[in-house]
Amino acid sequence: MNHKLTVKTITVEYCAPRKLRAVADSPRIAAEILRREFSKLDSDVEHFAIICQDSRHRVIAFKILHTGTGIMCAVDSAKLFRIALKLGAVNFIVAHNHPSQDPLPSADDIKLTQSLDRGARLIGLQLSDHFIVTENGVYSIRANHSEIFTK
């Protein structure tokens, strides 16, 4: 007798109830959340993450979207926007680490930030900030390069 077994992959995501969600309404608070979350990851490779937020900047979810190499991490902006929309985000923060521990953004980091900001606006989302996380601190691209964000 032949038996066929089909197994499907199920993705389960936990989102905290609204009253328990952290509010990341300042760069300092967002940096604290990012330092805590990135400290759990391998710092020898680059990771790219998103913090999805509701209209009051309460954290809906933190997700690692991509893990790369020691010098780069490819980012799929379509996947990023899909996740933000699926989770009901209005605002979102992106972040990645620099295994080199240099907190300054590269030219590619700046271009990516501009692209994500423009794309977010087209679909009704707002990119709150893009952070670079190192073991020595967190660098806010918005705080240091506000001119690249859509007004």
CATH architecture: 3-Layer(aba) Sandwich
CATH topology: Cytidine Deaminase, domain 2
Radius of gyration over alpha carbons?
A: 17 Å
Give unreliable regions as ranges.
7-14
Looking at this structure, what is the CATH superfamily? Cytidine Deaminase, domain 2
Report the span from N to C terminus. Answer: 67 Å
Report the strand count. 5
**What is the strand arrangement across the widest sheet?**
2-1-3-4-5
Described by strand count, sense and barrel closure, the largest sheet is: 5 strands, mixed
CATH domain class name: Alpha Beta
Q: What are the main properties of this structure?
A:
5-stranded mixed beta sheet; 151 residues; Cytidine Deaminase, domain 2; alpha+beta
Could you explain how this protein is built, in words?
The protein has one domain (18-148): Cytidine Deaminase, domain 2 (3-Layer(aba) Sandwich), CATH 3.40.140. The chain has four helices and five strands; from the N terminus they run αββαβαββα. It has helices at residues 27-38, 77-86, 107-122, 141-144, and strands spanning 47-53, 59-67, 91-97, 126-134, 137-140. The chain has a five-stranded mixed sheet with strand order 2-1-3-4-5. A hairpin with a 5-residue loop joins strand 1 (47-53) and strand 2. The chain is globular. 29% of the residues are buried. Mean pLDDT is 88; it is low at 7-14.
List the helices and strands and how they pair.
Elements: H1 27-38, E1 47-53, E2 59-67, H2 77-86, E3 91-97, H3 107-122, E4 126-134, E5 137-140, H4 141-144
Parallel strand pairs: 3-4
Antiparallel strand pairs: 1-2, 1-3, 4-5
